[in-house]
Write a structure and sequence with these properties.
two-stranded antiparallel ribbon; 8 helices; about 0% strand; flat; disordered N terminus
């Protein structure tokens, strides 16, 4: 019937897992590439950026979902940016209070979370159209997926670039570090390797599905 209210989709496990695997913001959607390539030269930097982004994503999406019926369509993008910028400022001061060394290591990329298309995209495409509970679950999954992707890059780059993991020596004094891995080109190399791996896994899954179907 015309004008019939559309029933909301139920909350399922896929609501949470979609951002971790099927719609991973880095390995599938290729979003937020600037921090992915810039701050993943160590595990601690990758973890800090991942947690900071997850916090902003979770809080801003929840607030957008709560106010979605009160925000005029004409100013929705500007409103989302103001909301996101508020939580980014909070994260900026929190990291600065916890560790100045980490704050300087992350540099301007903390403030640039405001322009992260993952957060703005979730606010526009998801939070503004779903309930707060569903938005929270989806945002947590998306944040975890983004953090896992950063750790995948940061772990490989720190291991090969310094021979350490979280600052602890892994390969011993005889290991010759690959200096390129902690430089910007190393980020592209490692990201490309991970994308190749996930592409191969996807093709392998499709082949098995076709064999079972036939």
């Amino acid at each position: 019937m015309v004008g019939e209210l559309r029933k909301p989709t139920p909350i399922t496990l896929d609501t949470f897992l979609r951002g971790i695997w099927h719609e991973n913001p880095v390995f599938v959607m290729l979003l937020g590439m600037c921090p992915v390539l810039a701050v993943t030269n160590s595990v601690i930097n990758a973890l800090a950026m991942g947690l900071a982004t997850t916090f902003v994503l979770l809080c801003s999406s929840a607030l957008v979902a709560m106010l979605r019926n009160f925000i005029p369509k004409q100013v929705r993008i500007a409103t989302y940016i103001v909301i996101i910028a508020t939580f980014v400022t909070m994260v900026d001061y929190i990291i600065q209070a916890i560790s100045l060394e980490l704050y300087h290591a992350l540099g301007a990329f903390i403030q640039l979370i405001v322009a992260n298309c993952i957060i703005l995209g979730r606010a526009e495409a998801y939070a503004s159209r779903h309930t707060i509970l569903k938005t929270l679950i989806n945002s947590i999954g998306m944040g975890i997926g983004f953090t896992i992707a950063l750790l995948c890059l940061g772990g490989v780059r720190e291991l090969l670039g310094n021979g350490t993991f979280l600052g602890f020596v892994v390969f011993g004094e005889s290991f010759q570090p690959w200096a390129i891995m902690i430089l910007p080109p190393g980020g592209f190399f490692v990201l490309g390797a991970w994308l190749l791996l996930f592409s191969w896994l996807k093709q392998l899954k499709e082949r098995r599905r076709n064999l079972n179907a036939s």
